[in-house]
Automatic annotation (TrEMBL):
Ig-like domain boundaries: 39-152
GO biological processes: cell adhesion; central nervous system development; glial cell differentiation; positive regulation of neuroblast proliferation; skeletal system development
Any one Gene Ontology molecular-function term assigned to this protein's record: hyaluronic acid binding
Protein origin, superkingdom: Eukaryota
Gene Ontology, cellular component aspect: extracellular space; perineuronal net; synapse
Lineage, broadest ranks: Eukaryota, Metazoa, Chordata, Craniata, Vertebrata
Principal location: secreted
Listed name of the protein: Hyaluronan and proteoglycan link protein 1
Length: 353
């Protein structure tokens, strides 16, 4: 070991001597620092979450902070994207670079930069829809510098379980998406179902969620719903085959701008008569999501069973009382009666002009 060490030291000494001969002007023990050009910066959001309602306007915060107080570069690029629920994809929302600006897809004409200063990359979104719910990424690129921040957009609304006239556990994932859309809703996210469970939602039938998982909320454990000795919570079947697996669905809806109401008639109606009665009143027969929104968000309360668009019969009770959902506030469900022979009232929905 010692001869080898001596040999290494000799070789190093010779190398240093050769360097001295070749580069006599080279100074020893000098430390050289290499720095990147341009001021460093970071992107931040004053709020990690913003809350609005369908039809509202909202600002997603995104502020640029620089270490030096320099004006924004003309080549600075600001890009907003929406993250999918599984974080595997990004949907383009808005891009700006200097005077060039572009919005994409369903966001066209509804988004723009707030632009209160050159350091403000906040995004203003108008006429918010149910599909706008989710997480958005603000990315700022300036030369070799870049940074991102994620902001969540949440909606005030209500989650409700749904199955069609065919009966329970008849929907694959894509059928579930269409079923919610037909009832003025979208498939609920896990976060929305979790908030509904925290608010007391208890439902023993498994349903699709927007991430492709199948789950259901239990506040009162019992034998048919995961077992009596289990703890309250969200029961999770995990991710299921979107084509082959069949379950119910949890839908989510929010405020609507129109008028939901019970149509006063002199007599009860068949389903087809109910549809025509709403049309005669300048309205349409109401959808299930519109009833849930009116009940939960506007405290609509009426103890009259009525037809809805999917040919189900329901009635909303916000104030429990004798003969009208005495134990809890709920939208009561009378099933899918015979459309030609059974007679009920009708709930209508009229868009505001």
């Amino acid at each position: 070991m010692i001869p080898v060490l001596i040999c290494a030291l000799v070789s190093l000494s010779v190398a240093e001597t050769n360097l001295d001969i070749l580069y006599p002007e080279l100074e020893h023990s000098r430390t050289i620092y290499v720095t990147e050009n341009g001021p460093k910066f970071n992107v931040m959001a004053e709020q990690a979450k913003v809350v609005t309602r369908r039809g509202g306007n909202v600002t997603l915060p995104c502020l640029i902070q620089r270490e030096q107080q320099l004006p924004a570069s003309r080549k600075m690029r600001i890009k907003w994207t929406k993250l999918t629920s599984d974080y595997l994809k990004e949907v383009d929302v808005f891009v700006a670079m200097g005077y060039h600006k572009r919005s994409y897809g369903t966001f066209q004409g509804r988004v723009q930069l707030q632009g209160t200063s050159p350091m403000d990359a906040s995004l203003v979104m108008t006429d918010v829809t149910l599909d706008d719910y989710g997480r958005y990424k603000c990315e700022v690129i300036d030369g070799l510098e870049d940074d991102t921040v994620v902001v969540s957009l949440e909606l005030e609304g209500v989650v409700f379980p749904y199955f069609p006239r065919l009966g329970r556990y008849n929907l694959n994932f894509y059928d579930a998406e269409r079923a919610c859309q037909d009832q003025d809703a979208v498939v609920a996210s896990f976060d929305q179902l979790y908030e509904a469970w925290r608010g007391g939602m208890d439902w023993c039938n498994a349903g699709w969620l927007s991430d492709g998982s199948v789950q259901y909320p239990i506040t009162t454990p019992r034998e048919p719903c995961g077992g009596r000795n289990t703890v309250p919570g969200i029961r999770n079947y995990g991710l299921r085959d979107k084509d082959k697996s069949h379950y119910d669905v949890f839908c989510f809806t929010s405020f609507h701008k129109g008028k939901f109401y019970y149509l006063i008639q002199s007599s009860k109606l068949t389903y087809d008569e109910a549809v025509r009665a709403c049309q005669k009143d300048g309205a349409q027969i109401a959808k299930v999501g519109q009833m849930f929104a009116a009940w939960k968000l506007n405290k609509y309360d009426r103890c009259d069973a009525g037809w809805l668009a999917d040919a189900s019969v329901r009635y909303p009770i916000y104030h429990p009382r004798r003969r009208c959902s005495p134990t809890e506030a709920a939208v009561r469900f009378n099933g899918f009666p015979d459309k030609k022979h059974k007679l009920y009232g009708v709930y209508c929905y009229k868009e505001n002009n």
